[in-house]
DNA sequence: CCTTGAGCCTGTATCAACTACAGACCGTAG
DNA sequence: CTACGGTCTGTAGTTGATACAGGCTCAAGG
């Protein structure tokens, strides 16, 4: 009988299965993003597929720029599935607006910066358009 | 005789003149971004126009997303003006590339996020496209 | 049986860039 | 005189990890 899918995983296995840093897993446990896993008689952490799934969820969310606070919220909604969709939509839309605001900020910065750099002669002189812009702003 | 321009400023005056947080000024002093200002007989910090100028430079640079490390570098070039332009150009161009990379990242995130949110029905159901995307990714 | 190496455990320190607070002192106006 | 607002220092907290120290355990190879 094939029970690979319920095989107990060590921490290093979980790290390999997800690509997550070993220490980061423990960090997520201490801050409550990941549950404290069951322990073996000797006190070793013992993981299984649900941990792999949850950690992947967390990593994908982090990859999309959700904060750990936001992820905590999303996980709560996953765990307690009632009225989920509308609430998730709110979290995601708020985050989307944050991301769009950041893009707008960075785009402004990019414009100012590239305009300024373009005025740079790049020679060995002590006069520099970038410095002037920063000094006179 | 009008000597407003050389009037000694207290820390709170410097904060008001620049819009910088009071505590941030001290922080910049401890990390060497701002010089330790002269003290009065009673040990109070005493600032003048050069501090205002320098702090404004720092704040404009921060606003453009330069790290304190990068700003330290720029300030060094301002203080010791020899071969400035070419070196400043290098710092600014590297930073510009960082900014562009961040914009690219965030744009990818924005696309994924808005596509996912668009599939959201937003109703009171426990099924949610966002959660599914994060779970199955 | 013993050693070796890999893995486990905990706790603590470090990073950026601030922010905030505690506890004490000072200086001036009413 | 006392209240208020300012100053000083030192230290802790924030976010999201990452790294290391010091010690324990386990499985495989000789």
TrEMBL record, chains A, B:
InterPro entries referenced in this protein's UniProt entry, alphabetically: DNA-bd_dom_put_sf (IPR009061), MerR-type_HTH_dom (IPR000551), MerR_fam (IPR047057), Tscrpt_reg_MerR_DNA-bd (IPR015358)
Cross-referenced SUPFAM superfamilies: Putative DNA-binding domain
Gene Ontology MF annotations: DNA binding; DNA-binding transcription factor activity
Gene3D superfamilies associated with the record: 1.10.1660.10
Keywords tagged on the record: DNA-binding, Transcription, Transcription regulation
SMART domains (UniProt xref): HTH_MERR
Residue ranges constituting the HTH merR-type domain according to the UniProt record: 14-77
Pfam families (UniProt xref): MerR, MerR-DNA-bind
Protein's recorded name: Putative transcriptional regulator
């Amino acid at each position: 009988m094939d029970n690979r899918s319920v095989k107990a995983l060590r921490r290093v296995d979980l790290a390999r299965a997800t690509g997550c840093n070993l220490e980061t897993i423990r960090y997520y446990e201490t801050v409550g993003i990941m549950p404290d896993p069951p322990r073996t008689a000797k006190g070793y952490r013992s993981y299984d597929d649900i941990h792999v799934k949850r950690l992947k969820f967390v990593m994908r969310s982090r990859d999309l720029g959700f904060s750990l606070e936001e992820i905590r919220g999303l996980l709560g909604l996953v765990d307690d599935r009632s009225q989920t969709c509308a609430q998730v939509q709110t979290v995601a839309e708020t985050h989307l607006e944050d991301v769009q605001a950041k893009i707008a900020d960075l785009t402004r910065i990019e414009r100012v910066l590239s305009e300024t750099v373009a005025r740079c002669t790049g020679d060995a002189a002590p006069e520099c358009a970038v410095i002037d812009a920063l000094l006179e702003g």
